[in-house]
Amino acid sequence: MHKRTNIEIDVDLLKKAMELTNLNTIKDVVHYSLTEIIKMNKRKRILKFKGKVKWQGDLDEMRSI
């Protein structure tokens, strides 16, 4: 689903984001930014399991596949 909207964006931040990502449109930068925020928060939620899950497996074997 897509929703058309009008927002005010800091032009300096937008330019910097476009330079860093090599994206050429505002839409692409906004979409990329939202996607990255979601990914970042998912990774943060995984950290709550640190030290609570017992690992079973062989990393060397898994890496050789």
Automatic annotation (TrEMBL):
InterPro entries: VapB_antitoxin. It comes from the Bacteria. It holds the Pfam family VapB_antitoxin. This is Type II toxin-antitoxin system VapB family antitoxin. It comes from Agaribacillus aureus.
